[in-house]
């Protein structure tokens, strides 16, 4: 079983997928604005109840077919393609900052800004968010290197707090491989001061064997 990295959407239907992705991105943007307003507001209880009623009404409009748990959305490519609903990079996810990733000669660089919704200590990023950002960047670096894998070990080191509302730079790169094991490293700095590490991480990823891959991801299309 050979699993190819995801290709961009085929020409037929590409326009439909682009329209879907644009709409998903727009809704994600509005939802993130709602989340930001929600965690910052000092509105009265009456107002909060009224807004909650409105949100419940809006949620009720997302009717129709719902995707199954293991289904890969048509707008996504896995592994190696867009992940519209990822809690890290997904433009459609209100949970995601979202991180924008670009390749480099040595791995991947991600850019994002964390908001108050990602707060741990007052004014600073939640340590779990840092782990999520680095896990994603290192995981995607494995995929970009042609060796996609699942995290089996994640070692975090927190050197300085991550400032909120400050553009961040997240680096992920593969440092070695040993059969199905891929070793990776990552750092978070501010964009303004990329030489001062705020958080660093080392991780081990494993490419599941073909039987495990089929069992874990039944939605993956196989290539003969
Ligand atoms: C192509 C298919 C798609 C692939 C996937 C793509 C995903 C693309 C997502 C990209 C973006 C997501 C980025 C976020 C990444 C997540 O969030 S991943 C989610 C969190 N991780 C998980 O849920 C993984 C849970 N773990 C598992 O399911 C199983 O451990 C795995 C990964 C399937 C591996 O199981 P296994 O194949 O039975 O592995 P096993 O034979 O026990 O061990 C293999 C080798 O690794 C070693 N090993 C095992 N555990 C460890 C460890 N903790 N430390 C060091 N070595 C270890 C073993 O000693 C063994 O070594 P050797 O004896 O061969 O030298």
TrEMBL record:
Keywords, sorted A to Z: Apoptosis, Cell membrane, Cell projection, Cytoplasm, Fatty acid metabolism, Hydrolase, Lipid metabolism, Membrane, Transit peptide
GO cellular component, one term: cytoplasm
Known catalytic reactions: (5Z,8Z,11Z,14Z)-eicosatetraenoyl-CoA + H2O = (5Z,8Z,11Z,14Z)-eicosatetraenoate + CoA + H(+); dodecanoyl-CoA + H2O = dodecanoate + CoA + H(+); octanoyl-CoA + H2O = octanoate + CoA + H(+); (9Z)-octadecenoyl-CoA + H2O = (9Z)-octadecenoate + CoA + H(+)
Membrane-topology annotation of the record: Peripheral membrane protein
Compartment(s) where it occurs, according to its Swiss-Prot or TrEMBL record: Cell projection, Ruffle membrane; Cytoplasm; Membrane
MF annotations from Gene Ontology: hydrolase activity
Enzyme class (EC, first level): hydrolase
Classification via InterPro entries: HotDog_dom_sf (IPR029069), THEM4/THEM5_acyl-CoA_thioest (IPR052365), Thioestr_dom (IPR006683)
GO BP term (any one): fatty acid metabolic process
Major localization class: membrane
Enzyme Commission designation: 3.1.2.2
The Thioesterase domain, residue ranges: 123-191
Similarity section: Belongs to the THEM4/THEM5 thioesterase family.
The protein's name in its UniProt record: Acyl-coenzyme A thioesterase THEM4
């Amino acid at each position: 079983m050979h699993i190819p990295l995801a290709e961009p959407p085929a020409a037929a239907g590409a326009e439909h997928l682009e329209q879907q992705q644009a709409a998903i991105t727009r809704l994600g943007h509005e939802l993130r604005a709602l989340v930001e307003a929600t965690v910052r507001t000092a509105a009265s209880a009456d107002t909060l109840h009224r807004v909650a009623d409105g949100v419940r009404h809006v949620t009720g409009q997302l009717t129709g077919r719902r995707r199954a748990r293991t289904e890969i959305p048509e707008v996504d490519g896995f592994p190696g393609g867009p992940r519209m609903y990822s809690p890290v990079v997904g433009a459609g996810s209100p949970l995601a900052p979202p991180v924008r990733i670009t390749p480099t000669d040595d791995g991947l660089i991600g850019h994002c800004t964390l908001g108050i919704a990602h707060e741990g200590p007052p004014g600073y990023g939640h340590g779990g968010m840092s782990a999520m950002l680095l896990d994603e960047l290192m995981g995607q670096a494995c995929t970009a290197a042609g060796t996609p894998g699942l995290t089996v070990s994640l070692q975090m080191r927190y050197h300085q707090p991550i400032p909120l509302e400050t553009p961040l730079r997240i680096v992920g790169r593969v440092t070695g491989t040993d059969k199905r094991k891929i070793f990776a490293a990552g750092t978070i700095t501010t964009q303004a001061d990329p030489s001062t590490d705020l958080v660093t991480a080392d991780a081990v990823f494993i490419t599941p064997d073909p039987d495990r891959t089929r069992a874990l991801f039944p939605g993956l299309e196989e290539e003969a």
